[in-house]
Design a protein that fits this description.
Blueprint (H helix, E strand, L loop, with lengths): L1 H16 L3 E5 L6 H4 L14 H10 L6 E6 L5 E5 L16 H5 L3 E2 L2 E2 L11 E5 L3 H6 L1
Antiparallel strand pairs: 1-6, 2-3, 4-5
């Protein structure tokens, strides 16, 4: 019990001292983020096979809004939103999925483990200050 309390306190201290991510920028309405989505599996690994995706989509019905559109150079499956229009806008914007509604999602200053921001996206994540600066006090 005491060991768990010590681990929890250590975790909270490190969480306080860790660099925070600041989301900046805005949507460019280019649709690229809707065409090159990369999801993580329940065990925090990237989805690499159709079987993994179909198993995960049984547990999370929001994933049925996406179709497999290819794979990247690292073997991760790429997904495209079913509702992306030819004009790069969402056809169902007001009832869009949770994933789309939260993109790009930051929670407690930590970038989500579910989605990946493409390099050409209008949004960027910046570190408020390097970790070594937190250690200086």
């Amino acid at each position: 019990m005491l060991k768990h309390l010590f681990q929890y306190i250590k975790f909270k201290i490190m969480q306080f001292k860790t660099s925070k991510y600041i989301l900046s920028g805005k949507c460019k309405k280019c649709g690229n983020c809707c065409r090159s989505i990369i999801f993580r599996n329940g065990d925090n690994s990237w989805i690499r096979t159709e079987e993994e995706f179909f198993e995960l989509s049984k547990k999370d019905k929001h994933l049925n809004n996406f179709i497999i559109s290819g794979e990247d150079e690292q073997g991760r499956l790429l997904f495209t939103c079913r509702y992306l229009g030819d004009n790069n806008l969402c056809k169902v914007h007001f009832i869009r999925s949770f994933y789309c509604r939260m993109y790009p999602f930051t929670k407690s200053g930590i970038f989500t483990k579910t989605l990946f921001i493409p390099e050409d996206c209008g949004y960027t994540l910046e570190v408020d200050k390097p970790f070594k600066d937190y250690l200086k006090g």
